[in-house]
């Protein structure tokens, strides 16, 4: 896995000012401007499906006592830009152990909060909220997969997915769903938002892959955000550089399962 | 229909070079903002987007001039060349930032043009504008006569290609591209509104 030092990472200001969180607007600066109204007090997460301990959890009940680590990951957006972000989070596997995954569960589905009164773009034509995402169980259990609660040891800003979000560093950013209120363990593959909007362009797996282009643009290279006007591009790496996940996809044709 | 006198007078007093100056200041101002970090954390993408949209807006403004005169009487014809050329200059800047600052390589540009349909379309629009820019001199207009008018109808094609190029790279957003398309189609459609014939018995009095 690529290892980054903090001083290679984007600044907190950059990370908080350049976001895709379409419930708050389509432009990169919209979430920073509009997400302040999102209510994150007394956050609850509903856990359901093939689990031993279903129910509604407070944040503390769900993650309290688990080891919070700093993970400095590169985030590669499907739009071909990238950032390096020092997350604070816990491994999703630890949370899944706490809620007890039952036999027969093969997928983990997530849902983002939907607060139409506090999200100016929640009713946007062409979108389909609440935002939903999902992972295959083995992807969810991989030690690289975390639930993040902070960046640079600060609580997540709303536009970054407060109070808790998924981070899957080898997949395009849209898989790393924000502001999670629901987690379900399922036997069948659930729909995901971008796949539902346009399955031709966005697949379920969405692994970073320089050899499989988005139908409208190349994924071979990316623009590191924050590098300035003359920063140029860097070549995109398979699995965003996180090669250790390759065995998860052994035998699969990643051109088909994109 | 006639626009108010003061508006006609005001428009008459605006020198044409102000369009070029405004375009240059806008292009330079945005570039300076990008240079000094005042255009967000992804200045290259922002410049490309703003220059691209600026060119599209300028093309639309050019397309509005003829129907504006016909349906409101407001005559902005003497600005039309400056508006069209400015659109072309902005497009040159758009392409230059994409090629030089974003891709930073000719081979990447070749791949993009060949493999990305929306970039192929955009390049086609740009290439079609080149002969229009080259024939925007008084001399070319005089020499070409009616062929000049025919050739410059290519702007209709260019603007539709420009819209397609813009719409294809949008993610999620639906309303704004459709608004642009509606405006473009109205401005194109107005050109097909039949002209009223002069009344035949104008001087018959009862």
UniProtKB/TrEMBL annotation, chain B:
Keywords: Cell inner membrane, Cell membrane, Electron transport, Flavoprotein, FMN, Heme, Iron, Membrane, Metal-binding, Transmembrane, Transmembrane helix, Transport
Regions crossing the membrane: 14-36, 48-70, 82-101, 113-134, 154-171, 177-193
Cofactor, how bound (note): Binds 1 FMN per subunit. Binds 1 heme b (iron(II)-protoporphyrin IX) group per subunit.
Main location: membrane
One Pfam family here: Ferric_reduct
Cofactor: FMN; heme b
Location(s), subcellular: Cell inner membrane; Membrane
Transmembrane among keywords: yes
GO biological process, one term: protein repair
Membrane topology: Multi-pass membrane protein
Listed GO MF terms: electron transfer activity; FMN binding; heme binding; metal ion binding; oxidoreductase activity, acting on diphenols and related substances as donors
Residue span, Ferric oxidoreductase domain: 64-162
Keyword set includes Membrane: yes
A cellular-component GO term for this protein: plasma membrane
Subunit structure: Heterodimer of a catalytic subunit (MsrP) and a heme-binding subunit (MsrQ).
Protein task: Part of the MsrPQ system that repairs oxidized periplasmic proteins containing methionine sulfoxide residues (Met-O), using respiratory chain electrons. Thus protects these proteins from oxidative-stress damage caused by reactive species of oxygen and chlorine generated by the host defense mechanisms. MsrPQ is essential for the maintenance of envelope integrity under bleach stress, rescuing a wide series of structurally unrelated periplasmic proteins from methionine oxidation.
HAMAP family xrefs: MsrQ
Assigned protein family: Belongs to the MsrQ family.
UniProt cross-references to PANTHER family, sorted A to Z: PROTEIN-METHIONINE-SULFOXIDE REDUCTASE HEME-BINDING SUBUNIT MSRQ (PTHR36964)
Protein name, per record: Protein-methionine-sulfoxide reductase heme-binding subunit MsrQ
Annotated organism of origin: Ketogulonicigenium vulgare (strain WSH-001)
Gene that this polypeptide is encoded by: msrQ
């Amino acid at each position: 896995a690529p290892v980054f030092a903090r001083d290679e990472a984007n600044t907190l200001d950059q990370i908080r000012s350049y976001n895709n969180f379409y419930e708050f607007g389509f432009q990169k600066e919209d979430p920073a401007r509009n997400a302040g109204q999102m209510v994150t007090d007394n956050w609850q997460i509903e856990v359901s499906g093939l689990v031993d301990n279903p129910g509604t959890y407070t944040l503390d009940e769900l993650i309290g006592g688990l080891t919070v680590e700093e993970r400095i990951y590169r985030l590669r957006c499907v739009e071909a830009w990238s950032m390096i972000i020092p997350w604070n989070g816990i491994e999703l596997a630890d949370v899944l152990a706490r809620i007890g995954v039952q036999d027969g569960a093969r997928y983990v589905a997530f849902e983002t909060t939907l607060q139409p009164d506090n999200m100016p773009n929640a009713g946007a034509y062409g979108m389909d909220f609440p935002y939903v995402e999902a992972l295959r169980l083995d992807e969810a259990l991989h030690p690289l997969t975390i639930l993040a609660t902070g960046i640079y040891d600060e609580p997540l800003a709303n536009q970054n997915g407060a109070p808790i979000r998924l981070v899957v560093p080898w997949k395009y950013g849209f898989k790393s769903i924000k502001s999670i209120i629901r987690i379900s363990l399922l036997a069948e593959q659930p729909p995901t938002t971008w796949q539902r909007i346009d399955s031709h362009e966005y697949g379920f797996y969405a692994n970073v892959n320089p050899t499989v282009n988005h139908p409208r643009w190349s994924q071979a290279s990316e623009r590191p955000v924050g590098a300035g006007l003359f920063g140029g591009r860097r070549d995109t790496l398979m699995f965003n550089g996180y090669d250790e996940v390759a065995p998860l996809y052994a035998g699969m044709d990643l051109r088909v399962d994109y | 229909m006639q626009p108010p006198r003061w508006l006609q007078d005001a428009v008459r007093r605006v020198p044409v070079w102000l369009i070029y100056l405004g375009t240059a200041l806008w292009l330079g101002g945005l570039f300076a903002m990008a240079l000094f970090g005042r255009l967000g954390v992804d200045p290259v993408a922002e410049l490309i987007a703003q220059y691209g949209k600026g060119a599209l807006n300028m093309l639309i403004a050019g397309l509005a001039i003829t129907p504006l005169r016909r349906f409101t009487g407001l005559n902005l014809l003497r600005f039309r060349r400056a508006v069209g050329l400015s659109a072309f200059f902005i497009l040159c800047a758009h392409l230059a930032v994409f090629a030089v600052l974003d891709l930073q390589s000719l081979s990447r540009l070749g791949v993009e043009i060949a493999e990305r349909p929306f970039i192929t379309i955009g390049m086609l629009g740009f290439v079609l504008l080149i002969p229009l820019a080259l024939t925007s001199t008084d001399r070319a207009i005089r020499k070409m006569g009616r062929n000049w008018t025919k050739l410059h109808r290519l702007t209709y094609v260019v603007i539709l290609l420009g819209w397609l190029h813009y719409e294809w790279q949008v993610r999620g957003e639906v309303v704004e591209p459709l608004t642009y398309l509606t405006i473009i189609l109205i401005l194109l459609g107005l050109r097909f509104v039949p002209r009223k014939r002069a009344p035949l018995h104008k001087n018959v009095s009862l």
